[in-house]
Amino acid sequence: MKNHLSKFLAAVLLLLSISAFAQKPAAGKLWTVAKANAWYKQHKWMSGADFIPSNAINQLEMWQANTFDPATIDRELGYAEGIGFNTMRVFLYSLVWKQDKAGFKKRIDQYLTIANKHHIQTMFVFFDDCWNADAKVGLQPAPKQGVHNSGWLQDPGNRLTNTGETAMLQAYVTDIMTTFKHDKRILLWDLYNEPGNSKKKEASMGLLIKVFAWARAVNPDQPISAGLWDWSFEKLNAYQALNSDIVTYHDYTEEASHLKTIQMLKTHGRPLICTEYMARTRGSKFANIMPMLKKENVGALNWGFVMGKTNTIYAWDNPMPDGGEPKEWFHDIFRKDGTPYKPEEVELIKKLNGK
């Protein structure tokens, strides 16, 4: 009798545990190559840019309530629609969420509504190892004259050493992704921009692994990725490539070198999206790179859109202290009034996009 009772209780406990497990949302898994390619085929060829409105120096100024500017976003995404761009890559920021969770999500929805009106899908970026490591909410600094991205912010930057910061970052990623996990206006989640930059190298591996785990736990409808960018970072590159549903990457080199990158990454069998290219003074231009990307069926998102407070008309390593306009812009396509920097470039972009 005792033995039968023990078996009965064990069976009940097993059923309860199965039931409890079944009620939990299943964690996502890496998309199969077949699923990734089927997803890619459902979309037009992706072309666009990394976008921040011209009146924002960094991610905080774009998203904080006092400086969020739907009118400028609407106007400038109108420039994008006019040349046939259908995809924009946009950086979020964790401190805005920490400061005002509901308000931030409302502003994200506003942004997506504006982008969708212009027939543009959005690729959102969570973390970033580029440029300034210390961020403060509130009024942002004025641009440093003639200096490329003088106010751009790493996320989380130096805050990662703070007690409880990892838990906050997990809550941030989980909340944003859970809120928008079924939103068709979002094309893809780019989890981490250039991990290992700012001389961090493999020190960024811990957060990289965590953010992939957090994203898989949410299991969004959209694919997840983290772009490869420095070919000397073997461990980071391997993790990013082998855990991304869609392989994304950055390449600012000229055509022959960039094509070798594509040929190497195609060995994964997954769709490719170049999420950063086009640095005119380095030989990466619309005229030589964008047609090649289309021919290779690789998504094409250049860095920079409307010249503004980010100062990305100036090169990374060549500041102009007098603040004059460089003879050849490094990035960006339009002046603030929508006038193209180079009309022939805009005509080529329109042609490639069937406009």
Automatic annotation (TrEMBL):
Gene3D superfamilies, alphabetized: Glycosidases
Signal peptide feature range: 1-22
InterPro entries: GH
Keywords, in A-Z order: Signal
Annotated protein name in UniProt: Cellulase family glycosylhydrolase
Organism of this sequence: Mucilaginibacter aquariorum
